[in-house]
């Protein structure tokens, strides 16, 4: 099973679960959407003739959503399977129903992540498999009786499905249970942080009728979507696929947002072993600038309010700066150095959110942090670039400082102009020097270059005009830069690279590149060209309506990371501005 893609996701903001395109449960986060990832393997199989036919080896007929309820249809030469997965909105329970075209024996194999700090044990109690470690309990049960089970060395039963029903030495991270002679079954996977709570939840599950739970969950998501029916993003919808992407964006945000802090994950996580990337299940202030802009467009300002009033207060360093990335709780995540645009993004976002008078204690240190990050040449001090690959003095970094200080000044004037008089004057003088330094250091042959030591064409060069306000969009320097982007970054599949000779995951078209360029064309009122770029992105959403990070440069397949919040955010922003 690939650990590099999540095909479908379900959850309730405390649980976040991901499924493959064949319905296999691949990840299960609890008690937070980014911590812990409890599942190593969770596989369902049909036992026949002393062997197991795993559902992940079946053929997929289709997979589709109903709200945040996922259906997966599978088939083999002998069996037809309809699977339905969802998480209850107000209880930490994942519900899985399976319908088969004939009676069979069903094998359930569950292996949890286990290590010296999170050692998993297992037991079967009252017709329920309970797997647990300190402060985390997971129960698997059904209204049907367990025919056989094994809580230790169950991996030896995987070839033939032969379980011994012996309860010996429960110190095992993998267990298996068997249900016999059924053509329909509902499995409840319940999660709790203590045994007493789990036992109560198990009793609750046993009293439920799945069809009622399903109807309530369907109604919950239908009612949730009704709040957005008159939103600007649903006006002038050109194609059904557009509406599907907008709907999926709204429903996705509900799953990847930490309701306690307002933080949105960059994406449900992948690649836990760091084989191909540094992982994605974190919150970046940079991404948050675009994500929160889209949330405000959707009318979800209560989430962005919480992000700046709760998450930002917790995440900010004493220096006023923000680190590269964090957990959704606001605690520091694994990072590899300061990117000053992360701090600037926080100031820009607070200004856009219009609640800055109550955030004085966040704004003032952030301004100080930006001022202290300017070197003697009035450029950003050396740091990592927007793409987190190169250390140097970058245009985007310096431009973000300029924008952050420019808006920071406006906020100080609104908070208390007299109190911050000296800081406002310092900002005004600094802005003049920084703008002059940008012109001196980042223009070559009439167009922009991305770093003092690097002139590769980069989509982020557009930042001076959009989303920042340093140059007018019709300035000749911006026009020349756009022409270079069109010439140097366009790819055979119609998309655009991040920058020249990008080789991350092979070098592909990035969804945000096309949408960033669309924002520029909107700003110069070339709506026809913007619409072409927007339509290209629409055509490259996956079958469930998710937008990826990258599309294969020579084709139309997703190349890396589905459910990228930044891609969805840019799609919403562009749609809100299109005419």
Number of helices: 13
The count of DSSP E runs of length 2 or more, i.e. the number of strands, is 22
Sequence stretches where pLDDT stays below 50 over 5 or more residues: none
- Approximate shape: elongated
Q: Supply Rg.
A: 26 Å
Cα separation of the termini: 44 Å
Helix/strand class? alpha+beta
What is the CATH T-level topology of the domain at 8-226?
A: Beta-galactosidase, Chain A, domain 5
Helix content: 25-40%
Residues in β-strands, percent: 15-25%
Mean pLDDT, all residues: 95
CATH architecture of the domain at 8-226: Distorted Sandwich
In brief:
This protein has 579 residues and is α+β, with helices and mostly antiparallel strands. It is built from 13 helices and 22 strands.
How would you explain this protein's 3D organization?
The protein has 579 residues and is α+β, with helices and mostly antiparallel strands. It has a domain at 8-226: Beta-galactosidase, Chain A, domain 5, CATH 2.70.98.10. The chain is built from 13 helices and 22 strands. The protein has helices at residues 195-206, 210-226, 240-256, 285-297, 301-315, 340-353, 360-372, 395-416, 421-441, 476-488, 511-523, 527-539, 565-577; strands spanning 8-11, 16-19, 25-32, 35-37, 39-48, 51-54, 59-66, 69-75, 80-87, 93-112, 121-125, 128-133, 136-141, 148-150, 174-192, 383-384, 391-392, 443-444, 447-448, 509-510, 550-551, 558-560. Helix 3 (240-256) crosses helix 13 (565-577), helix 4 packs across helix 13 and helix 11 packs parallel to helix 13. The longest helix has 22 residues, at 395-416.
């Amino acid at each position: 099973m690939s650990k590099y893609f999540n095909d479908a996701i379900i959850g309730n903001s405390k649980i976040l679960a991901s499924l493959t395109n064949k319905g296999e449960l691949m990840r299960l986060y609890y008690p937070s959407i980014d911590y812990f990832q409890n599942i190593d393997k969770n596989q369902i199989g049909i036992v026949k003739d002393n062997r197991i036919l795993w559902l992940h080896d079946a053929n997929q007929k289709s997979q589709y959503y109903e709200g945040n309820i996922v259906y997966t249809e599978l088939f083999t030469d002998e069996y037809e399977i309809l699977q339905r997965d969802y998480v209850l909105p107000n209880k930490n329970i994942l519900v899985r129903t399976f319908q088969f075209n004939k009676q069979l024996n069903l094998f359930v194999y569950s292996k949890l992540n286990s290590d010296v700090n999170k050692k998993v044990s297992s037991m079967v109690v009252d017709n329920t498999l309970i797997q647990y470690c300190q402060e985390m309990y997971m129960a698997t049960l059904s209204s049907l009786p367990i025919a056989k089970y094994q809580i230790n060395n169950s991996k030896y039963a995987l070839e033939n499905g032969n379980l011994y029903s012996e309860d010996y030495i429960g110190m095992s991270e993998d267990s298996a249970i068997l249900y016999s002679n059924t053509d329909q079954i509902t499995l409840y996977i319940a999660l709790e942080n203590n045994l007493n709570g789990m036992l109560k939840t198990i009793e609750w599950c046993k009293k439920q009728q799945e069809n009622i739970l399903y109807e309530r969950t369907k109604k919950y998501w239908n009612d949730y979507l009704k709040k957005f029916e008159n939103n600007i993003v649903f006006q002038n919808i050109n194609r059904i696929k557009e509406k599907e992407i907008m709907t999926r964006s709204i429903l996705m945000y509900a799953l990847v947002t930490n309701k306690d802090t307002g933080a949105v994950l960059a994406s449900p996580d992948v690649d836990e072993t760091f084989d191909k990337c540094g992982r994605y299940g974190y919150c970046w202030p940079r991404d948050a600038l675009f994500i929160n802009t889209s949330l405000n467009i959707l009318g979800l300002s209560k989430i962005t309010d919480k992000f700046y009033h709760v998450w930002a207060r917790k995440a900010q360093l004493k220096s006023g700066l923000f680190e590269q990335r964090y957990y959704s709780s606001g605690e520091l995540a694994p990072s590899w150095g300061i990117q000053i645009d992360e701090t600037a993004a926080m100031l820009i976002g607070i200004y856009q959110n219009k609640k800055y008078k109550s955030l004085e204690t966040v704004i003032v240190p952030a301004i100080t942090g930006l001022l202290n990050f300017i070197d003697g040449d009035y450029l950003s001090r050396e740091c990592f670039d927007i793409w987190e690959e190169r250390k140097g003095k970058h245009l985007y970094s310096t431009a973000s400082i300029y924008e952050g200080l420019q808006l920071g000044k406006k906020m100080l004037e609104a908070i208390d102009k007299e109190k911050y008089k000296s800081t406002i004057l310092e900002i005004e003088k600094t802005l003049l020097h920084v703008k002059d330094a940008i012109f001196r250091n980042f223009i070559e042959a009439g167009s922009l270059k991305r770093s003092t030591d690097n002139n590769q064409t980069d989509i982020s060069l557009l930042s001076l005009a959009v989303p920042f306000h340093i140059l007018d969009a019709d300035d000749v320097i911006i026009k020349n830069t756009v022409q270079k982007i069109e010439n140097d970054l366009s790819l055979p599949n119609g998309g655009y690279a991040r920058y020249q000779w990008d080789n991350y995951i092979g070098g592909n078209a990035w969804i945000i590149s096309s949408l960033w360029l669309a924002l520029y064309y909107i700003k110069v009122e070339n709506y026809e060209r913007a619409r072409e770029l927007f339509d290209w992105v629409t055509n490259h959403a996956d079958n469930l309506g998710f937008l990826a990070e990258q599309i294969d440069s020579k084709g139309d397949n997703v190349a890396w990371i589905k459910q990228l919040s930044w891609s969805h955010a840019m799609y919403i922003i562009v749609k809100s501005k299109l005419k």
